[in-house]
Amino acid sequence: MGRLVVVSNRVTLPDENRAGGLAVAVHGALRESGGLWFGWSGRIDPETSGQLRERHDGNIHYATMDLSHRDHADYYDGFANRTLWPLLHFRMDLVDYSRETHAGYRRVNALFAQKLVPLLHTDDTIWVHDYHLIPMAQQLRVHGVRCRLGFFLHVPMPSSDLLAALPDHARLFEDLSSYDLIGFQTTRDLERFQDYVRLFGRGRVIRSGVLETYGGHRLRAGAFPISIDTPMIASQAAAAISKASVRRLAASLSRRALAIGVDRLDYSKGLPERFRAFARYLERHPGQRGKLTYLQIAPVSRSGVAEYRALRGELEQLAGHINGGHADADWTPMRYVNRNYPHASLTGFYRLARVGLVTPLRDGMNLVAKEFVAAQDPEDPGVLVLSSFAGAARELHEALIVNPYDIDGVADAIEMAVTMPLAERRERWQAMMAQLQEHDIVAWRRDYLRALREG
Ligand code: F6P
């Protein structure tokens, strides 16, 4: 078995405390076969842009590249996050398309490919991640790379009509056609992609998961739902309960129940709708006043994009309004926090919570939903309120599944979660935990890489 080469926009270096799903999966896979992780360094520096920073840690080689201001603006803030991100999250109204940023996106992909090629071996397997890097395979093929090339889309695949509204959709499809395997989060995403191919793509679906594209190239596609390191999260959460930050949160609640949400500050996460649903719950259940505290952790994200800055203002206003209208001298209903917490503390916070609120308007998977479940105390588990538009809802059937646009419905689910008897909480939790034990992060990467290598 040759090396694994992972290409993603962000790279997690060994000493960085980012224990996200992708970082855990990628490190595990790279350690197994040895390999290279390549991507953006996270730095914008006109002096060093285009230069490689390399590092070795055991059998893993890390190579990252700085970007210039212009490349970052066109590629990351521009085409990736102002055009593709809203489009892929069904927000055509927010799509901002320009030929200039599209050209910048292709320029940076070409630059990445050019820097990556000299680092490759002929028997490498290359795994490219997410919407930032769709043209990567095509660019590598131009340089004569013949390795097996796989792509995984972490975010949703939108309906075919939406995708076709993008001026350059045919070009993107051509880019995707250069891969050997495309992985989606759910079978719904796969179906929507195949619908697009049937209706708009220059190719045909031979059977589900097998397509023929340009020049008779055979492209395989499948659903590979990403997951978490279930036993690690469970033991981390159990240990985190005695951490100072978790103990402080528990003490500050003064025996009140906790509802928690943890999301990047992103319009796809449905935060204004969730805040309104919480307010509705308080209005409709005056007897519950002072009994439930909602902690929303929302680290600021992509602040170079106007919609994200506007959302931040909106949430500040809403949180202030809710607290102003419902708080008491000794109780604040909402705690709204923009800072980031170490992953271990978050798992402890999840374990303390009676209610986990995961209500995105659209989400590829949402690993917070899965981590919330894995972090619970088996004797006294909390209840997950989960949007039907998160990929996770296709696996976690025993959550309270809600439509995040239905403010009253989410308010009802909060009430149901708060009052749910222990026996029902346990039953629901056990079923979800069994699913997460079987389909964990190791199974995800093994299934994907087996499909890619065997293809
Ligand atoms: O989940 C989608 C995603 O874009 C990941 O690729 C990314 O790591 C994460 O969201 C955070 O976004 P960003 O890298 O823009 O901060």
UniProtKB/TrEMBL annotation:
It is an enzyme of class 2 (transferase). Probably involved in the osmoprotection via the biosynthesis of trehalose. Catalyzes the transfer of glucose from UDP-alpha-D-glucose (UDP-Glc) to D-glucose 6-phosphate (Glc-6-P) to form trehalose-6-phosphate. Acts with retention of the anomeric configuration of the UDP-sugar donor. GO terms for molecular function: alpha,alpha-trehalose-phosphate synthase (UDP-forming) activity. Transmembrane segments: none annotated. This is Trehalose-6-phosphate synthase. Keywords: Glycosyltransferase, Transferase. Belongs to the glycosyltransferase 20 family. Its EC number is 2.4.1.15. It comes from Montanilutibacter psychrotolerans. Pathway: Glycan biosynthesis; trehalose biosynthesis. It holds the Pfam family Glyco_transf_20. It catalyses: D-glucose 6-phosphate + UDP-alpha-D-glucose = alpha,alpha-trehalose 6-phosphate + UDP + H(+). Homotetramer. One of its GO terms (biological process) is trehalose biosynthetic process.
